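User: My advisor, Dr. K., asked me to get a structural model of this assembly before our group meeting. I'm new to this, so sorry if the format is off. These are the inputs:
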Amino acid sequence: MSVDKIWVLAEVADGAPITTSLELISHARSLGGTVEAVAYGDGTAAMAPTVGEYGATTVHDVGDLAGALPGAPVAAAIAALVAAGNGPDVILFPATYDGRDIAARLSVKIDRPVLTNVVGLTEGDGGLVSQHAIFGGSQILSARFTGEGPHIFVVRAKSFAAEPTGGAAAAVVAAPAPDTGATNAAKIVARHVEERIGPKLDEADVVVSGGRGLGEKEQYALIEELATLLHGAAGASRAIVDAGWVPYSHQVGQTGKTVKPTVYMACGISGATQHMVGMKNSKNIVAINKDQDAPIFSVADLGIVGDVHKVLPKLIEALKARG
Amino acid sequence: MNVVVCVKQIPDPAAPGALDPGTKNLVREGKLILDDSDAYGVEMALQLADAAGGGDVTLVSMAPNGETSGLRTALAMGAAKAILVSDDSLAGTDALGTAKVLAAAIRRAEPDLILAATESTDGYTGTTPVQIAELLGLPSVTFAKKVEISGASVKVERQTETGYDEVESPLPAVVTVTAGVVEPRYPSFKGIMAAKSKPVDVLTVADLGVDAGQVGAAGARQEITDVAEAEARSAGDIVVDEGEGYQRVIEFLEQLKVL
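Assistant: The format is fine. Below is the predicted structure of the whole assembly, which you can bring to the meeting.
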């Protein structure tokens, strides 16, 4: 099977396509053939110029979902296009909350397996080969589908570069969802936006993360203060998210966000494989941990063997003194 | 209210993992434990059933070799019973095949609510719960950080990129919970003793009426073509803090022009 047509889920946030979707459109273009987007919500017409600029020729517009969670209706709309014989060879989803839901529903609707946590996609004999980071990113596994398409891949953020090509605005074609019955019954009744200080975790140039070594929830304030002083974002290991110290949205790692900042500072984080896979491709890594045998030091450009409760306050004080 | 919790029994994540050189499946020999991520769903189920004035919490799991050690942990927490699907033909089954098997097992329990973790700690595919919902024709709400039952519906605070959404769904429904959503209880001695005699229904693929061609390595319709060492990062400067360690961090940040 040659890859003639690739669809990319173009998710919208704050009125624009999310970066991961643009990364996928850019990479899909490099794999040859036609690239088209699938979008939903009320901002699809406004995004047509942007997705066009990155290489998509068409936007299949599912339209407004009237408060429904996207999983069922968007998957149904895609499945209907596939059933009508207009489906692509490959469908790429960003590994987001909604992207994963839609991919999972679609997988059942068209009875095709899914490959998730993809960090690379290359052309192979008879289709695409996906790369996956396993065992904390120490090994890279390659996989491919052996059955018929469409082949569904769910791709992690920052796996590819987003590169505009100056393409014309994509044509918007309506692709309404058919009735999905009970599966579509979950409705959003209210949205809450939590105040965020500083840049987004996955877009920040500096990320300061804290882990179990902080000892207690209150000490996370050190991480937030340091992050603010460095104009960065505050992250966390799974251990302290599981412990309820900070919300899941701060989690860096296999089950959280992938980050690739200029500087990643791991404070009181031992470096479990779960964490490493989300940060080891940072350009520079600083680790502060009192256990000199902690695995985090194996990936650190600068490692400070010391107590975060002693090192961080001094560091914060020195940065404040610089103004 | 009857609640099903999907639980996975996995190799101890603290031990180094390995792939079988032949099949390239994850080696799952030896004792399996309850995936930590699932303890939250079990606790949530116990609390919701309690708040609703009673009902059974049933565990549903798929594991090789009739493995029950992880299930016993969840039974010791307070779950009433378990359905375990264990069958040699399931080796190499992917997420979709797993969902087909678990959905068939869940149908037997006729639950009002199905809980699962957002993803497992070992495979972390993260699609199985929603695939189950689609197979059962049910709504689903993923990434729940708070769950409440209100009459015949479930109210969920669902994690989003920028905060959370309040979501309502009629029951039955599938809900996946994030870690930290509740504080899982430690099994009491009494609970551990009681768990030994709680019923575990062990079923095969044939018992469930699932088509054998849909499971196992062949049913997965995907294959691992290669496993390679990732490019290693070279270790950098490691210094012991004698009170001036922070200064090294500042110098490093200056070099990178972050300061």
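One thing worth pointing out at the meeting: Chain A touches chain B through 98 residues (CB under 8 Å).

User: Perfect, thanks a lot.
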